[in-house]
């Protein structure tokens, strides 16, 4: 955990303090490296509360709107997430639906393209647009998608999902993430839709087949009846009807073939496979909609063919019935299969939860997550297990993935003989009055087959995107500003040209396609924001469709929460990523959003120079999403320790023990005005708090609450007990702390409070036992580092105390009843910073984060200490052990700036790191107990 | 401590304050053991520890299971099941042949009247002998003759292939309690109050066979002989339940010296009178003996006595070294002595020459600073006072190891690797030098880093 959101608030005051007292200068330290810094209140004006509501928005908080461009009634809102009328408030959903639907300029064209005999389905990519409506005070990320409906005009139904927020910057900053998340939702909808569409087509085909046979029979009868040698008008009519049915059948068969070809194309090109509808011709042709849905719910992921053949009685179709507009249109739910619809809704809810809260918090969180991923060696000590576990579920599906890949390969070889000649170009003009937007496509330069998978091609593609983006960003009307658009024009070109290539029927070719599918991006947005595949798959999808998830086995090695890893060829993966990488997505992003004329990605990465500040000391640069390109120096922390450690970006001044204190001061002052859970008295606080509902995190909302509670209790503890420092020192140095008391609730509360200081020993859970009534044994001291122990007057209780007295050398004892502490002396400085009883931090979660940041610093010191070669091994052959030992001590004292007992903390943490590192994967860590023979002292209040 | 825990300002009633046992504070600079590993596995009292080679040892006890452990890592190597009742004796039996590769065998005897030979490399049972009439209480390997002896109600001699070479007639129902090898193919067996010397002679008819003959019966002890130890080729020592310590000549089996009144030895060091004890015999029974070239160290009751063979007197003692009986003592090369006791503690002593200036009082932790520690301090001084005019040496407590919750039955000193203790609380604890372990871990760490190739810069 790197920073705290409410650390941010009152940087101004800190400056005043610094100006007032010269002593405060001691806190001024060299700035943090750019990638670690959380700029302060990025968008607040002078004197404005950073959480002040942006003017004029009529809704309480961010929400998601799903809207449709109905061919009957025009744009209409369908649903909102959260499904609560209070959230949009007086916000005009209808009006906003119109707005968001009207910016979709690249909707697909389906029908009879010129020069083609049959109607063609266009596998349109979603478009992603950011728009702002100054009148409504709303800004939205809008995700357009097209679903297929046999009964709709041109077979398509345009939909869109919009994330609406009053904070323009939030949308801009989180564009990549929003896009990734909404792509997931959209993919889910579309997958279900394809399935439903296919089965609808099959039904239709059956109907047509039946109609044809009926018509055929009638024609035959007429033929027989008619022996005059010429046809009656009736007969000609019948023949025409028959011909049109035949044509319709061919058309529908073609459509079916097209829709079935989709998953293959998709699989080939992207590493996201939410669900692969199993529409092998024999199964899907007989499956009815409901049955598919039912079987999906019953046996998710099962690919076994249906054992029973659902009966479907074909109907006679009247001619011209295909284009019937007077009936009711299908609902979204019907369009995409109830199962997928619910999945999508879940995903949307998750998006809402993920992006709840202030953008500053989101960014900080993302930065710290990204950084944490690099600190793989030290993470286990103090970070949440749940936080680190995010990737664990993925591993479960490895086996299934391989299965899935096999399936893909099979599919490739099966389907490859059918050449696809899907070409759909041109401009789309909305039926409703709208700005017609010309699609600018490079059709005169179709990529060569060999180029499709090469990296150079992608670069070129990127150029194309940008070009198109700039031209595509338009401003329509006074209230709508299209802030940034992305369209998949070029992507479309590519995908189609690719699809139009006759694919070699050899299975090897198919396989190579599979292997390299990460390198080719069909979707423009995927180039801009490559999202980790882990993040792409909703949790429930993972659970229910393990076999359908076809991920790259090595995907998680490279990806980070926010590292927009550019898609490189595997052989390019080792190339150093420098700032001038043309694929740097953040830059492309900013370029297209802000709409600058120059292609900024050609410029080198802006150097992290001094941040511009204005008078009130508020930094004006928003937190930058974590970029991989900047990873260089700090990357060393991950798994490649430099022998000397120090050069890897941790400069001596950064190691100076004083500088985090500055951060603490910051956070201290920030609380005077900021909203606080304990002091809602201040009116400013209450006004700003409604806009910032406490950010919840889908993976671990419980742990969030736990953190808050633990932080709050810890704060209370350090305020209440003057001897908090030696107690915390005991925990940090690996000496078991016993909280002794009669009242279970009090003891448990203390244990919870202190548990945030307990380093984990490598096992999953923290070594904390909240309540124990039995006498302690020596084994318990290696198992638990913090124990709540019952004190009773009974003989059993006396035994408990006897055991405690016997093992007193291994434990520190905090007596909750008499408020005394017996433990070794502490004279260091680290704990004083960690637990200052005069701290101004009032919020539990803030304090928790403060603790985490100090502990992270300790961890880095421990890491350096543990992994510095010369501190543990003799430099020269003949060097005595004493020399090495003295070098060790001097390193701790002078380089790491530790004094007295702080040494022991770092040594203990380093020992834990060592143990963890050398531990063989198969066997559990040896439960060893380390201790010191040091005298204890009794502290009283 | 306990008083503080129980709370309030009541007057001291805890055990620690009353006892006159010398205590050491929590600050133990000379105690190297700052890391411990608890080895779990046994389900009953662990009574025996035996070293197999440089880094392995076996533990055995009342659950009849033998565990083989790695002394460095604490890893459990093998779990040997075969006995149905508690183990009564255990002895390592490594081969002396140079022709074969060195095989490490151990012999175990159990109350189920069997002896099993185990192979420590494979963890397999090599052979089992179950033709005993009584429980085998002691096992001795005579490496020189490549035979082993089992002592129960009779004494049997076996060769490596587990052929019974010869046996004595039925000696007593109680059986042989201890055996010790003496020069000239002799063994001394303690049978009750008697000490019987047997001699092995090559049989006249067969080249392979041996005969065993009773040579002499020594009846100088007044009570059961509990301990029997060979000092060197010329002397061996016995100790009895009533506190008699007799030094014997190993060649002609005559009594060289005896010490029987340990409780008064300090006052009258030269007194040779063998007065029957009036004290409770438990207080004075010689539980265990060990020796180096100069001295015999005796665990007598709760105390430890150092008997100098040349001066023929006790040169140093610690009358109440532990809170209860000392079960095992061992001399370390560095003038240190380790003792373990029924009170569950292990103590490390150092034999020091008496100086003119009394040694600095041992700091006793916070009690001193807070003024609570007077009781302890007085105890310390009292303990020292008793030694003052009597001995030239004294035993200084340099550290104690507290980990077991019940009697520590035995321990095994592994030199650099540490110390292994076994106890009635079913645990085996491996005590290690934390500094050394930390260094070793660093070494392993960098080896692993080099293996993984993580030392190369990745950026």
Automatic annotation (TrEMBL), chain B:
<comment type="subunit">
    <text>Component of the C9orf72-SMCR8 complex, at least composed of C9orf72, SMCR8 and WDR41. The complex is formed of two protomers, each individually consisting of one molecule each of C9orf72, SMCR8 and WDR41. The protomers homodimerize via an interaction between C9orf72 (via C-terminus) and SMCR8 (via N-terminus). Within each protomer SMCR8 (via DENN domain) acts as a bridging protein between WDR41 (via C-terminus and N-terminus) and C9orf72 (via C-terminus). The C9orf72-SMCR8 complex associates with the ULK1/ATG1 kinase complex.</text>
</comment>
<dbReference type="GO" id="GO:0010506">
    <property type="term" value="P:regulation of autophagy"/>
</dbReference>
<dbReference type="InterPro" id="IPR020472">
    <property type="entry name" value="WD40_PAC1"/>
</dbReference>
<dbReference type="InterPro" id="IPR001680">
    <property type="entry name" value="WD40_rpt"/>
</dbReference>
<dbReference type="InterPro" id="IPR015943">
    <property type="entry name" value="WD40/YVTN_repeat-like_dom_sf"/>
</dbReference>
<feature type="repeat" description="WD">
    <location>
        <begin position="319"/>
        <end position="359"/>
    </location>
</feature>
<dbReference type="GO" id="GO:0006914">
    <property type="term" value="P:autophagy"/>
</dbReference>
<feature type="repeat" description="WD">
    <location>
        <begin position="80"/>
        <end position="128"/>
    </location>
</feature>
<protein>
    <recommendedName>
        <fullName>WD repeat-containing protein 41</fullName>
    </recommendedName>
</protein>
<keyword id="KW-0853">WD repeat</keyword>
<dbReference type="Pfam" id="PF25178">
    <property type="entry name" value="Beta-prop_WDR41"/>
</dbReference>
<dbReference type="InterPro" id="IPR036322">
    <property type="entry name" value="WD40_repeat_dom_sf"/>
</dbReference>
<feature type="repeat" description="WD">
    <location>
        <begin position="39"/>
        <end position="79"/>
    </location>
</feature>
<keyword id="KW-0677">Repeat</keyword>
<keyword id="KW-0963">Cytoplasm</keyword>
<comment type="function">
    <text>Non-catalytic component of the C9orf72-SMCR8 complex, a complex that has guanine nucleotide exchange factor (GEF) activity and regulates autophagy. The C9orf72-SMCR8 complex promotes the exchange of GDP to GTP, converting inactive GDP-bound RAB8A and RAB39B into their active GTP-bound form, thereby promoting autophagosome maturation. As part of the C9orf72-SMCR8 complex, stimulates RAB8A and RAB11A GTPase activity in vitro, however WDR42 is shown not be an essential complex component for this function.</text>
</comment>
<dbReference type="InterPro" id="IPR040102">
    <property type="entry name" value="WDR41"/>
</dbReference>
<dbReference type="GO" id="GO:0005765">
    <property type="term" value="C:lysosomal membrane"/>
</dbReference>
<dbReference type="InterPro" id="IPR019775">
    <property type="entry name" value="WD40_repeat_CS"/>
</dbReference>
<keyword id="KW-0072">Autophagy</keyword>
């Amino acid at each position: 955990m790197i920073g705290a959101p409410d650390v941010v608030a009152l940087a101004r005051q800190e400056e005043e303090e610094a100006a007032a007292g010269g002593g405060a200068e001691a806190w001024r330290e060299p700035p943090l490296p750019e990638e670690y810094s959380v700029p302060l209140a990025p968008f607040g004006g002078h004197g404005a509360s950073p959480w002040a509501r942006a003017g004029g928005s009529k809704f309480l908080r961010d929400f998601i709107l799903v809207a449709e461009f109905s061919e009957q009634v025009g744009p209409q809102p369908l649903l909102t997430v959260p499904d609560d009328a209070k959230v949009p408030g007086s916000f005009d959903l209808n009006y906003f639906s119109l707005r968001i639907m009207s910016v979709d300029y690249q909707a697909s064209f389906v029908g009879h393209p010129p020069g083609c005999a049959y109607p063609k389905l266009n596998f349109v990519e979603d478009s992603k647009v950011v728009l702002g409506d100054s009148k409504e005070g709303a800004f939205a990320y809008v995700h357009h998608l097209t679903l297929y409906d046999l009964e709709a005009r041109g077979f398509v139904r345009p939909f869109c999902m919009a994330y609406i927020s009053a904070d323009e910057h939030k949308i801009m900053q989180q564009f990549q993430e929003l896009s990734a998340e909404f792509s997931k939702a959209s993919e889910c909808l579309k997958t279900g839709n394809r399935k439903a569409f296919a089965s609808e087509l099959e039904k239709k085909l059956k109907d047509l087949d039946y109609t044809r046979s009926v018509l055929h029979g009638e024609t035959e009868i007429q033929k027989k009846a008619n022996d005059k040698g010429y046809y009656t008008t009736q007969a000609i009519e019948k023949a025409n009807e028959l011909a049109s049915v035949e044509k319709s059948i061919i058309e529908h068969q073609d459509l079916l073939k097209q829709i079935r070809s989709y998953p293959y194309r998709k699989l080939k090109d992207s590493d996201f496979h939410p669900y692969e509808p199993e529409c092998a011709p024999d199964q899907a042709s007989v499956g009815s909609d409901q049955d598919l849905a039912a079987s999906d719910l019953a046996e998710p992921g099962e690919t076994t063919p249906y054992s029973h053949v659902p009966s479907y009685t074909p109907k006679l179709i009247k001619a011209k019935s295909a284009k019937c507009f007077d009936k009711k249109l299908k609902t979204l739910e019907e369009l995409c299969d109830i199962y997928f619809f619910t999945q999508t809704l879940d995903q949307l809810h998750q998006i809402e939860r993920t992006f709840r809260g202030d953008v500053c918090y989101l960014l900080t969180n993302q930065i710290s997550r990204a950084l944490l991923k690099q600190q793989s060696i030290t993470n286990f000590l103090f970070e949440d297990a749940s936080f680190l576990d995010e990737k664990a579920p993925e591993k479960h599906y490895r086996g299934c993935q391989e299965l899935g890949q096999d399936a893909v390969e099979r599919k490739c070889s099966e389907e490859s003989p059918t050449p696809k000649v899907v070409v759909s170009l041109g401009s789309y003009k909305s039926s409703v009055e709208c700005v017609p937007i010309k699609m600018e496509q490079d059709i005169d330069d179709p990529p060569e087959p060999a180029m499709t998978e090469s990296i150079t091609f992608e670069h070129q593609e990127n150029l194309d995107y940008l070009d198109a983006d700039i031209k595509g960003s338009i401003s329509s009307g006074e209230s709508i500003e299209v802030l940034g658009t992305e369209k998949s024009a070029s992507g479309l070109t590519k995908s189609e040209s690719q699809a139009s290539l006759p694919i070699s029927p050899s299975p090897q070719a198919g396989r190579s396609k599979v292997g390299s599918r990460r390198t080719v991006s069909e979707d423009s947005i995927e180039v801009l924001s490559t999202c980790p595949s882990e993040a792409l798959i909703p949790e429930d999808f993972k659970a229910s469709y393990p076999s359908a998830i076809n991920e790259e086995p090595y995907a998680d090695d490279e990806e980070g929460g926010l590292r927009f890893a550019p898609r490189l060829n595997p052989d390019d993966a080792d190339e150093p990523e420098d700032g001038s990488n043309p694929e740097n997505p953040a830059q492309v992003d900013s370029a297209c959003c802000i709409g600058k004329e120059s292609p900024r990605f050609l410029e080198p990465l802006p150097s992290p120079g001094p941040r511009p500040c204005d008078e009130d000391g508020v930094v004006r640069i928003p937190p930058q999403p974590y970029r991989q390109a900047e990873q260089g120096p700090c990357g060393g922390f991950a798994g490649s320790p430099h022998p000397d450690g120090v050069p890897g970006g941790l400069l001596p001044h950064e190691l100076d023990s004083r500088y985090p204190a500055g951060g603490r001061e910051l956070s201290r002052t920030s609380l005077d005005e900021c909203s606080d859970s304990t002091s809602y008295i201040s009116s400013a606080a209450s006004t700003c708090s409604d806009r910032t509902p406490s950010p919840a995190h889908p993976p671990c909302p419980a742990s969030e609450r736990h953190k808050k509670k633990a932080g709050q209790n810890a704060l209370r503890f350090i305020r209440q007990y003057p001897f908090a420092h030696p107690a915390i020192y005991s925990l940090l140095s690996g000496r078991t702390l016993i909280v002794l008391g009669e009242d279970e609730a009090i003891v448990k509360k203390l244990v919870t409070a202190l548990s945030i200081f307990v380093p984990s020993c490598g096992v999953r859970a923290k070594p904390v036992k909240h309540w124990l009534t039995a006498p302690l044994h020596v084994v318990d001291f290696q198992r638990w580092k913090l124990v709540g122990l019952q004190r009773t007057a009974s003989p059993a209780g006396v035994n408990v105390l006897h055991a405690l007295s016997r093992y007193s050398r291994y434990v520190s004892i905090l007596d909750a009843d008499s408020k005394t502490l017996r433990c070794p002396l502490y004279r260091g400085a680290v704990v004083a910073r960690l637990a200052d009883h005069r701290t101004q931090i009032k919020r539990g979660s803030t304090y928790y984060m403060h603790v985490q940041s100090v502990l992270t610093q300790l961890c880095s010191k421990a890491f350096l200490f543990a992994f510095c070669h010369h501190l543990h091994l003799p430099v020269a052959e003949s060097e005595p052990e004493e020399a090495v030992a003295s070098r060790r001590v001097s390193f701790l004292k002078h380089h790491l700036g530790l004094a007295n007992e702080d040494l022991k903390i770092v040594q203990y943490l380093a020992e834990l790191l060592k143990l963890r590192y050398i531990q063989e994967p198969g066997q559990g860590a040896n439960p060893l107990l380390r201790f010191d023979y040091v005298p204890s002292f009794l502290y009283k209040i | 401590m306990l008083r503080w825990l129980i709370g309030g300002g009541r007057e001291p009633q805890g055990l620690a304050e009353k006892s006159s046992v010398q205590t050491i504070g929590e600050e133990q600079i000379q105690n190297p053991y700052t890391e411990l590993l608890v080895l779990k596995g046994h389900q009953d009292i662990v009574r025996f520890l035996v070293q197999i080679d440089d880094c392995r040892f076996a533990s055995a006890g009342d659950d009849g299971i033998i565990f083989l452990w790695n002394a460095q890592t604490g890893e459990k190597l093998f779990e040997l099941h075969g006995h149905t009742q508690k183990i009564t004796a255990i002895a390592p039996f490594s081969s002396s042949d140079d022709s074969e590769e060195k095989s490490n065998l151990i012999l175990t005897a159990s109350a189920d009247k069997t002896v099993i030979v185990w192979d420590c490399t494979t963890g397999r049972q090599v052979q089992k002998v179950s033709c005993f009439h009584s429980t085998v209480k002691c096992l001795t390997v005579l490496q020189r003759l490549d035979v082993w002896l089992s002592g129960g109600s009779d004494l049997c001699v076996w060769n490596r292939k587990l052929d019974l070479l010869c046996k004595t007639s039925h000696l007593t129902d109680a059986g042989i309690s201890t055996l010790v090898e003496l020069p000239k193919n002799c063994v001394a067996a303690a049978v009750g109050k008697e000490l019987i010397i047997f001699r092995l002679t090559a049989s006249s008819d067969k080249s392979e066979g041996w005969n065993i003959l009773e040579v002499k019966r020594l009846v100088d002890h007044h009570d059961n002989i509990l301990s029997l130890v060979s000092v060197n080729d010329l002397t061996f020592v016995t100790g009895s339940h009533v506190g008699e310590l007799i030094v014997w000549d190993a060649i002609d089996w005559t009594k060289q010296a005896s010490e029987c009144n340990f409780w008064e030895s300090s006052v009258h060091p030269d007194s040779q009178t063998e007065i029957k004890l009036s004290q409770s015999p438990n207080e004075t029974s010689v539980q265990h003996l060990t020796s180096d070239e100069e001295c015999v160290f005796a665990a007598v009751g709760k105390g430890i006595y150092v008997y100098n063979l040349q001066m023929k007197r006790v040169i140093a003692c610690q009358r109440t070294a532990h809170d209860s009986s000392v079960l095992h003592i061992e001399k370390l090369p560095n003038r240190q002595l380790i003792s373990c006791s029924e009170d569950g503690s292990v103590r490390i002593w150092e034999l020091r020459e008496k100086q003119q200036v009394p040694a600095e009082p041992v700091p006793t932790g916070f009690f001193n600073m807070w003024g609570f520690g007077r009781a302890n301090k007085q105890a310390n001084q009292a303990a020292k006072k008793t030694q003052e005019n009597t001995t030239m040496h004294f035993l200084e407590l340099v550290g104690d190891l507290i980990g077991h919750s019940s009697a520590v039955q035995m321990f095994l000193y592994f030199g650099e690797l540490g110390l292994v203790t076994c106890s009635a609380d079913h645990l085996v604890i491996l005590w290690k030098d934390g500094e050394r372990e930390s260094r070793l871990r660093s070494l392993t760490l960098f080896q692993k880093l080099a293996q993984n190739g993580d030392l190369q810069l990745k950026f």
